[in-house]
């Protein structure tokens, strides 16, 4: 895949970039290693000052970088501005909270005495240069939620971003440099995916994090396993959105539309499978389908647009294949389902009903504005359908019954359970999944500690 900005609204190639050669990659790896030796010793206050400055600059650049993101991958420009603001918020959150999240831990005095020590502690120390392999769908947020905690922990980062968002990738490197971080603290590597394996094998890279597809995650995990390096993987998701009879059905249907089509439906944590109790199924299906039909599809740079184009022609073709397979296998198309005429990689908001386990869309992630509806006879069947997926990123549950909430929290196989609301990431809460959605956590204290050397310090009596 070429490293290029291709506007998905019209297919026009706007900018192309040459991949870095081996000499430049070597220079950057040497620089990362050398920078880490000194940056790791800086004080939290100094790191926080730099990160807060980066947040201020990002706020100033918000409108400009939003247009860049929209032009590169097609998200509605209002959502792009919100993404930039969210990144600045996360930077400030980590600048404020990192010292407490990474503070020395003191074991219980009785345990210290029992170990034969006069005193002991647990200290969090940085690991070193971390390789981040990031996707195009949230081209700022996916990177910042790694970079902010990594930099505050004293690590340095090397970014291999998706090849269709090179301008955003270069902007991030420039942003941290303008904020005052030395050049080696955060570097963008303009390389193709084929170069990742060799870089990950380099001894100077101490760990890696990847957000992306399951095949990409498997490849990085395999190499990291051979090299005995720590990895965090956030892969696909096919999140359930369960609606029970006690729920506010109209409100659930309204939120369901946003939960499905956020970022043009290209979000791992977007609700994709809507599992509705039989008692309220017809009402929910009607309201939800009406909401999907009413969405404004168009130029993502226009303020009123709610759904823009998919990020790539291949992505649209993959989505079409899933819908066509479901239709051929007996699914009912309640709205959408047909590629529109004209330029750009648009696909209409689509609702499919009558899904069965043999359809590909039941097992695979639909990365675009396509929703699947399931009818559940009771809570047991709702849990069964929700867990009948190779993925387990997050989940959404709508009910006013406390006992039902307890049951869903206990039994849903997911990294998050959001009750009477839609899944959304926040710097204070851990984010990640189970099963084929990956392992490890981003954000919160759990995320900042993923790339730390957890060191026991023991002093004899």
TrEMBL record:
Q: Which NCBIfam families match?
A: PRK09406.1
Q: Which Pfam families match?
A: Aldedh
Highest taxon above the source species: Bacteria
- Alphabetically list the UniProt keywords: NADP, Oxidoreductase
Q: Which organism is it from?
A: Streptomyces phaeoluteigriseus
Is DNA damage one of the keywords UniProt gives this record? no
According to the entry, every stretch annotated as the Aldehyde dehydrogenase domain falls at 3-457
Could you identify this protein by its name? NADP-dependent succinic semialdehyde dehydrogenase
**Record's family?**
Belongs to the aldehyde dehydrogenase family.
């Amino acid at each position: 895949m070429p490293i290029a900005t291709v506007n998905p609204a019209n297919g026009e190639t706007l900018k192309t970039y040459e991949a870095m050669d081996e000499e430049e990659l070597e220079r950057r790896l040497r620089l990362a290693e050398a920078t880490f030796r000194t940056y790791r010793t800086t004080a939290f206050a100094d790191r926080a000052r730099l990160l807060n400055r980066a947040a201020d600059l990002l706020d100033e650049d918000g409108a400009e970088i939003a247009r860049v993101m929209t032009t590169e991958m097609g998200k509605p420009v209002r959502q792009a501005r919100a993404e930039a603001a969210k990144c600045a918020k996360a930077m400030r959150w980590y600048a404020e909270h990192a010292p407490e999240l990474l503070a020395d831990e003191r074991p219980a005095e009785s345990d210290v005495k029992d170990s034969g020590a006069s005193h002991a502690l647990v200290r969090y120390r940085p690991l070193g240069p971390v390789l981040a392999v990031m996707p195009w769908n949230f081209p700022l947020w996916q990177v910042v939620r790694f970079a902010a905690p990594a930099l505050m922990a004293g690590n340095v980062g090397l970014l291999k971003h998706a090849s269709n968002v090179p301008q955003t990738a270069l902007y991030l490197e420039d942003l941290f440099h303008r904020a005052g971080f030395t050049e080696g603290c955060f570097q963008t590597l303009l390389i193709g995916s084929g170069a990742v394996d060799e870089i990950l094998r380099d001894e100077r890279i101490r760990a890696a994090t990847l957000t992306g597809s399951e095949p990409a995650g498997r490849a990085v995990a395999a190499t990291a396993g051979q090299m005995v390096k720590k990895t965090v993987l956030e892969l696909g998701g096919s999140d359930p959105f369960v609606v029970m009879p006690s729920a506010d059905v109209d409100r659930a249907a309204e939120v369901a539309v946003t939960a499905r089509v956020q970022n043009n439906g290209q979000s791992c944590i977007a609700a994709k499978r809507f599992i509705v109790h039989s008692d309220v199924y017809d009402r929910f299906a009607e309201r939800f389908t009406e909401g999907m039909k009413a969405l404004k599809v168009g130029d993502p740079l226009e303020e009123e647009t709610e759904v823009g184009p998919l990020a790539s022609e291949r992505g649209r073709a993959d989505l079409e294949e899933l819908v066509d397979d479901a239709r051929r296998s007996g699914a009912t198309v309640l709205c959408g389902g047909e590629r529109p005429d004209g330029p750009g990689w648009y696909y209409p908001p689509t609702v499919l009903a009558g899904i069965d386990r043999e359809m590909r869309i039941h097992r695979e992630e639909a990365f675009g504005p396509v929703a699947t509806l399931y009818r559940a006879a009771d809570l047991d069947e709702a849990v069964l359908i929700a867990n009948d997926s190779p993925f387990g990123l997050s989940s959404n549950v709508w009910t006013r019954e406390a006992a039902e909430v307890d049951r869903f929290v206990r039994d849903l196989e997911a990294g998050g359970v959001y009750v009477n609301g839609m899944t959304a990431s926040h710097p204070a809460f851990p984010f990640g999944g189970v099963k084929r959605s990956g392992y490890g956590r981003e954000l919160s204290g759990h995320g900042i500690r993923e790339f730390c050397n957890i060191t026991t310090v023991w002093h004899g009596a």
